[in-house]
Amino acid sequence: MPAIASYTLLPLPQNELSAHFTPQPGEPEHPELRCGHSKDTKTDTNGLSVLQRTKAEMRRSQTILRQLSRVRTSHGSANKMAQNDTIPIKDYRLGNHDVFYVPNFLSVEEERYILHTRLTKTEMEAISKQKATNMGWRDHGQRVIPAKPPVVYDSLVDRLKKTGVFVQSPHQQPNHVILNEYQPGQGIMPHQDGPKYFPVVATVSLGSHAVFNYFRYKAEDVEAEDGVGKAVEEVPMLSLLLEPRSLIVSCCDMYTSNLHGIDSLEEDNVFPSVPAMTVSAKENLSLNWVPGGVTPIDNWEMLGDEVTKQFVAKGAVLKRGTRYSLTFRDVERITSAKSFKFI
Ligand SMILES: O=C(O)CCC(=O)C(=O)O
Ligand SMILES: [Fe+2]
Asked: What ipTM score was computed for the predicted complex, to two decimals?
């Protein structure tokens, strides 16, 4: 499992930031938006407690967000999505799979803002001890998150609503978000998210890429190696390159019947998959497929960044940086997966 670093709640004071994401050459430097993480202290250098400073930071975050809404970016698609009434999610479907890949779902500014405002685990715990009120957001272990997520989350939830993927969920929108942190070399074992959630999961990637694999279970009569549970195919049925700022949605059968995971690697060796490539074809092509070997990327034609696309098209080794993911779900499950379809 990756470390669950924190929930993004409130901005950190500038003086506690350490350089984390350095602006690319030629990129305008925006002092408010430099990303970083705080030292694990309960008070800042002015002796303010986390709760005291959060009010001031909240006001500051509102100002930044107002500025952000005026920023014009070259990543037009995120801005267009923010303005449109609906996002045609069907246009982003991966073949016939219950999987949707949307590049540039977030703008560069939103990505930076979210990374800038995340709290550390220690800060989260410091706030929890002070028993602030529950605003309805929960963390992975179902502890209550005692503060309202910043406004940028509202706009992300709004944008997710516009895709229609949560239209049949109990609250018609996600009510739960997890922020995971993956250092290069970290991944997440193949797993299912389980019946606690409505069978739609929407994940936004930030900071770096991941290769996200979906796996089938082996036939009923094949036992797992450890004799516990069902055996899982070693070769992924699908592998997607998740670019920073992209959205991936898994639902329906993909949610209820298959597993997903990310290999624990420092770099991903990728090449383009061809349409309708079967698992056995992939196995042959990948020559003695091993986890972390060469991975055919099924969404390479849908990639948003032209340079990345060209690299993947030729075959490339992509070095991982620190990746964060925000996973949105609706917790209370009242509709059965079988009767649910938005596609
Ligand atoms: O971080 C990701 O992209 C996936 C996380 C995940 O699968 C989970 O939290 O259940
Ligand atoms: Fe998961």
From this structure: 0.99
